[in-house]
Each structure stands twice: as structure tokens, then as C-alpha cells.
């Protein structure tokens, strides 16, 4: 007799991967085997959960209800298992994190290395991504992003100090072009711009008028990329100006590879936060990471 949970993890995996083939790659089984498992689950439940096409799957109304309950149940089981492990000894288990690529200070590794060294039974599963609007639906325990983009129903813990944007160009570039005195002068410069993904518009560079309000500028782009390291390689080659977080730009400034301009228009602002939903209890491993971040902040 089939267990009531048979096929449920596979069903959740298919929904979150967007199809049988992608879910099969994650689970190490064939898409055909997954399809058979899901058919058996639907037969036991007496309802159709998924509408299948040759390219994708779509939840039925019953499927949406069953997915929401299944996702919550699996999360509860995983949290409970990790909590039991916590009772035995130190925090253990995997923390699935989604981190914005701009969180350079966090991604550089010192914070992560210190945390992992302090908690040898915890593993980190990290995806660097710009376009996750719902970390729960995407299967993450927490995200790390700028505070201004985090939804209000999330619990947010500071993961960095204040941040600044910095506009930079190489000495070779400024040997051929005058330095901009005001952000409006960027219209006369070649710029290396950023966009988070192929369907997103290029970033409008953000500034603050001294003693005035915030404003943004649509810059003329010589090149557009979604990778900061590539952008900085183009800048150091003398192809144009770019803007980036101070944490990421400082190594280039320290080596003399770039020069900062327009600094009076780039004041500090609130930095990055680790966030997770209020309705979900943090696992012992995630709780340990939160405590670690708070201890680092107090030590500063």
C-alpha cells in the first residue's frame, strides 16, 4: 500500500523546476519516471494536479491547493529534522540562500568563511541571482538584498554596513575625456551599464543632489552586462565609465586602476539585509547564521 507522502516531494520538485525534465535532472531520475510517479499520485488523490504539454506543466486549481499545502508540509518536516539535530549537538543542515550579485562584501567570502568555520555541521547552498521575487516559492530559506527592495512582510536582519555607489573610469579614459562635474555630464561619456537580466531594462544611475533630492540618469551605454567583473574589465581597458557598489570598486581604486568621480552625488545609504518570511520559523542553522551576523554587527 502506498504511503500518503509517496510522490509528494517529486510533485513539488516538478512544479518548482517548471517541468519533468528539469526536475528529473535535479533528482537524478528520468522525466518519464517522474511523470509515472505523478500519475500514480493523481490516481490516489482522484484529481488532476498538472496540465501537461510537450514544453511545460501548469497547475490545476486542485494542484495549486495541493502544492501550497505540500510545500508547507515539506518545509515543516525539514525544519523539524534540523531542530532534532540541534537537540543532539550543534546546528546542522543546509541553508539555501539567494543573494544579489551586488552584495560584494558578503560574497567576497570572509563572512561566509567565518560562519562555516564556526559551524562545521552547516552547509550553504548559494545561488547568486537578481530576479527572485518570492524566495519561499523558489525554495530558499532566506535571501540577501538591499533593504529597499525587501517586502514588508519579511523579517530582515542587517548583513552589511551602509553602502555607497561609486562612479569610476580608468586613467587612460580620463586622459582622453574630461571628468564629469555633474551627473548630467554623463550624457557626453561612454558608459558601461548593468542590467539584472535579459528582459530587464538597463539600470538608471541613481544620485542625490547635495542638499536636495534623489534623481536618476539614463546613461548612454557603450556596453551592457549583468556581470560586474566583466564591466570592470571593460572599464580598466579604458572603454568607459561605470557605477558600482563601493565594496566592489575599492580594490580597483586601491590598485590605481580606476579613479572615482561625482562622489559628492553618491552619499551612503542603508545596506544589505538577510531576510526570511515572518510566517516561517527559522531553522537552527539559519538561526545560527542570523546570530552570527548580529554578533559581527555588534563587534564593528
Helix/strand layout:
Layout (H helix, E strand, L loop, with lengths): L7 H10 L2 H8 L3 H15 L4 E3 L4 E3 L1 H28 L4 E7 L4 H4 L2 H9 L3 E7 L13 E5 L7 E5 L6 E5 L1 H6 L14 E4 L10 E4 L5 E4 L3 E5 L2 H9 L5 E4 H9 L4 E3 L10 E6 L6 H16 L1
Parallel strand pairs: 3-4, 3-5, 8-11
Antiparallel strand pairs: 1-2, 5-14, 6-14, 7-12, 7-13, 9-10
Helix content: 25-40%
CATH topology of the largest domain: D-Maltodextrin-Binding Protein, domain 2
Using the alpha-carbon principal axes, give the shape: elongated
Q: What order do the helices and strands follow? A: HHHEEHEHHEEEEHEEEEHEHEEH
* Sequence of strands across the biggest β-sheet: 4-3-5-14-6
End-to-end CA span? 58 Å
Number of strands: 14
Summary of the model, kept short:
This protein is an alpha/beta fold. 38% of the residues lie in helices and 22% in strands.
Folded structure, characterized:
There is one protein chain. This protein has 300 residues and is an alpha/beta fold. The protein folds into 3 domains: 8-70, Orthogonal Bundle (Arc Repressor Mutant, subunit A), CATH 1.10.10; 89-161 and 271-299, D-Maltodextrin-Binding Protein, domain 2 (3-Layer(aba) Sandwich); 165-265, D-Maltodextrin-Binding Protein, domain 2, CATH 3.40.190. The protein is built from 10 helices and 14 strands. It has helices at 8-17, 20-27, 31-45, 61-88, 104-107, 110-118, 171-176, 228-236, 246-254, 284-299; strands at 50-52, 57-59, 93-99, 122-128, 142-146, 154-158, 165-169, 191-194, 205-208, 214-217, 221-225, 242-245, 259-261, 272-277. The strands form 5 sheets. A 5-stranded mixed sheet has the order 4-3-5-14-6, with helices on one face. A 3-stranded antiparallel sheet has the order 12-7-13. Strands 1-2 form a two-stranded antiparallel ribbon. Strand 1 and strand 2 form a beta hairpin. Helix 1 crosses helix 2 (20-27). The longest helix has 28 residues, at 61-88. The chain starts with 7 loop residues before the first helix and ends with a helix.
